[in-house]
Structures are given as C-alpha cells and as structure tokens.
Amino acid sequence: MVSKEELKGTFSMLPTEKLMEIIDNKFGYTELAVSVAFEELAGREITEEEIKNYKSKQIEKLNNYIKKNISHDLAFTEKNLFYFLFLPLFTFPFRHNFREKGYKLKIIQANYYSIIGLIFFLLSAFFLYKGLSNLFVAAFWLGGFIPAYLMDEFFNRQKQIRRLQRLFGAFQPGEPGHEHDV
Fold this sequence. Notes:
With 182 residues, the chain is mostly helical. The protein is 76% helix and 0% strand. It has a domain at 68-182.
C-alpha cells in the first residue's frame, strides 16, 4: 500500500488540473488519495481562472461524450454497408476507426447491423435451399434492412439515450445546450 508521504511526493508534481480531476472523481480513488490531493490543492494558490478553465474542459468532455453516443450515429450508407457487408474482413477498417475516435454508438450500431445482416442472409440462404424463387430470396434479404433500420431508430437509439440520461441526469430535448437532442 502507498503511504501518505509517497502520495504527497507524487501529487506535488502533478498539475493542478489533474489534482482537480482526482477530487472531482473521488469515487475512483482511495480516501487517502483524495485527501492528499485536497491538501495539495489547498497549499497551492489556485486562481478563479484555473477553476473556470477546468470546469469548461469538463463540460466540453461531457458534451463530446454525449455527441459521440447520441448525435453521431452511423450514416444511412454506413448502416447499409454493415448490413450487406457483414463480414468482419470488409468492415474491420471502419470499426477500428470508430474505436480510435471513441464513437461507442457507432460501434454498437455497426455490430447490430452486421448481426442482423448475417441473420437475414442465412435465412435467405435457407429459403433458397428450400427451393423458393431467387427473386423472393433477394427481396427477403434486401427487405430485411427495413425492420433492422426501424428497430435501430426506435428502440436501440432510444435505449442508448435513456442510459445516458441516467448517467448524466435527465435533460429535456430543446433545452439550451442540447441542440443535438433527439
């Protein structure tokens, strides 16, 4: 276990913003770490400007998180791409890009459309094997995108919004600062 003196030495070298983060996220740290961070901050002469800058950065982080999880969903063409080219070999570069940029909603949607696309493809193959017409099989697979899309828009996306509302407190669409609300 780390001693109070070791923490004091480590925390004395940390920037003020990092100490504020520790205190702001006190449930992610031990009681000792939070109290040492508080003592270190109390010993520094922190300006009101530093506090405002820290709060602005935190609000910006929150807004970016919300945008990446509500506002920035897959484009319609991307939804089609993942539905029809469901094999990871074809879609890996897109998913990797989403992960690097932190787009959690896009990753969830990409997985959803790939799984639904695969299911409809397998059902279509089964219907083809059972002797149904090629036209019906093709229409079934193509038409499967419609319920997948509607399910995503009206259930999956709303579930994600409700989850974020629980995390960050309820907000009402149309409130100032929530221009991207659905």
